Amino acid sequence: MPSRLHQTFAYVVPRVRRARELVDEPTERARVLAWHKTLDRRLPIRAVPRFERRFAVVTEELTGPRGAFSSYVLTPRHREPTRTLLYVHGGGFMAPIDAFHVRYATRLATALDARVVLPDYPLAPEHTWRDSFEALTALAARWSDQPGGAVLAGDSAGGGYALALALALRDRGGPRPTHLLLHSPWVDLTMGAPGTVERDAVDPWLFIGKATAYAAWWAGSPDHLARPEVSPGLGDLAGLPPALMTYGTRDLLAPGCEQLVRRAGEAGWDLNAVVEPDVLHVFALMPALVEARRAFRTTVGFLS
Predict the structure, then answer these.
(1) What 3-state DSSP class applies to 71?
(2) 3-state percent breakdown (helix, strand, coil) of the chain, nearest 5
């Protein structure tokens, strides 16, 4: 049974985030485009206590087919990192790096004695997967080839993106991450996993209409929705690095995670799943929750 605090979060978080179903796709597109014009794309470092004392930040410009975008390297001060955590942020492919992402990634990196790499990839609907995929694949290969290797991680849309990058790195035969860490990953943008409609009825935060619209924007074409770069959960999962996935079952994306577990078993991929019944999307990024603390201990143990 979920903790009492989780029950409070399940009520409060969707309201704070103003979660609601879309009116229609054109209205949602216009809303998101207008919102993007107001965004401050600087890294939200104020979310992390004593950040500037603890980390030095270097901004790297990555080049995509439609222009450059930033990737942030957060290196711990006063000690030499032994490995890299490359964290791909979530947000439905249409929202930027959030304070939750920075807080979680730096907390995990501290526990692992790692640096953090946070790519700030171009967002939908202005951009599709094609505008960042090659640059992020190269970024992941480069950090995977550094001493100590790299953990490739992400949440929600970023978790799916991390898995897509891992598939590409495997297929290209170069450096690969040592581990994958996927928190409530969005791995099937076709929204065709069995039980998705039923889960939509109980998830207070995510909505199938919005997810369908965002998936179409990110794919760029209906023909691309099932591509492994977009829906990696439908790809060939053999030969991937060991992985840990966390998810709660009160989540629109949980059927895709359940499908991924089944397909991983068929492919012989070492995927460990931490499942919290009746718990929200990306609960592992909410450190106040007992469920998140359990997941964090499991994650550190898995990656250590």
Answers:
(1) strand
(2) 45, 20, 40
Which segments of the chain are extended strands (E)? 55-64, 67-76, 83-88, 114-119, 150-155, 179-183, 243-248, 271-276
Tokens matching residue 206? 């995510």
Return the domain boundaries, the chain. Answer: 4-303
| Longest Cα separation, the chain | 51
Residue 214: exposure state from Cβ atoms within 10 A (0-12, 13-18, ≥19)? buried
Task: Specify the pTM.
Answer: 0.97
4-303 in CATH: which number?
3.40.50.1820
Q: Judge contact between 233 and 260, C-beta under 8 A.
A: yes
The residue with tokens 């991450």 is 177
Per-residue burial over 44-66, b if 16 or more Cβ lie within 10 Å, else e, is beebbeebeeebeeeeeebebee
Region 263-291 average pLDDT: 97
3-state secondary structure of 227: coil
- The predicted-structure confidence for 30-43, as pLDDT tens digits, reads as follows 999 999 999 998 99
Alpha-carbon gap, residue 19 to 113, rounded angstroms? 36
Give the span between the Cα atoms of 164 and 170, in whole angstroms. 10
